[in-house]
Amino acid sequence: MAGRIPLGAYALPGRVADPRAIVGQAQAAQELGLQTLWLSERWGTKDLGVLAGAISQVTSTIRIASGITHFQARHPAILASLAMTAQALSGGRMIIGVGRSVDAMWAAVGLPKSTGASIVDHADIFRRLCRGEKVRYDGPAGTFPSLRLNDVPDQPVPALVLAGIGPKTLALAGGHFDGVLLHPFLTPDAVRRSVASVREAERQAGRPPGSVRVYATVVVACDMPPERELAVVGARAVTYYQIPGFGERLAAVNGWDPKPLARLRAHPRLVGVRGSADAVLTREELAEPASVLPAAWTRGAAAIGTARCCHDTFDRYREAGVDELVLHGSAPDQLGPLLRGSRKGS
């Protein structure tokens, strides 16, 4: 992939009944030369610690990233222990991606919501624990009288990446994190603005230029028939746009009129759905409501069509200033024609 932007990919995209497919997908990702394999954690069949451990034993070079987990979903010592155990098993290949999610989710499961202050303090607690330090803390992240990992492997602290959409989260990433993971369905122009926000926060924090790695997530459907393309791209779009508040945030970042969101949410398949639609509906079931979305909301913010069209889209994101693309929607073992073709054209 010489001359092109580095690529990573999500494994086990969407709903998964059998996580054992992770083994073949991880091996395919490494064989294809991907930089990073990302895990979209979902409670039930996609636990970060278990999947990272499995991947570490069937690969040797590809980085392993959570994209994403959440600080408050695990006790700080448990998250740090998971990270350092995975570092030891993988030879230091872990990246820990974290995010805010939405307040309604945390209220539903009885956990505190994320704030800017709690995110920054959680990151500091995580790094200190991973270095083997003793931590006493009472503040926005909680109360922890005495924390320490008794046994810490001789491995570096994993890079911390913050998932972000809005300016406040991008500023947190630029000032306090090692990287930022941009959300799917951002146009190249929206990504360019996001990169500028991260770089400005990086500068204001006195950090070296370019020290925060920017990852942009791009949903990919290469050389697929229309119905399959709609199931991959359209269904993935619906899972984000139909969430109240979240869809409006994506539309605002892209500079789009949010009126189509009302039509989407009024679709008979989505009426009464709470939370993420793909928790209760299959890709094929989500393809029907996806058809009411404007074409620009999918085709203008994803990589669709021939391999050449997809690579042209990748180039537009590279020109927007990102350091690495994270391919989503298509599993690594489905990306061979797209990526092997790019090698021949390099």
TrEMBL record:
Keywords: Oxidoreductase. It comes from the Bacteria. Residues 17-324 form the Luciferase-like domain. InterPro entries: F420-G6PD/mer, F420_OxRdatse_MSMEG2249_pred, Luciferase-like_dom, Luciferase-like_sf. PANTHER family: 5,10-METHYLENETETRAHYDROMETHANOPTERIN REDUCTASE, PTHR43244. This is LLM class F420-dependent oxidoreductase. The lineage of its organism: Bacteria, Bacillati, Actinomycetota, Actinomycetes, Mycobacteriales.
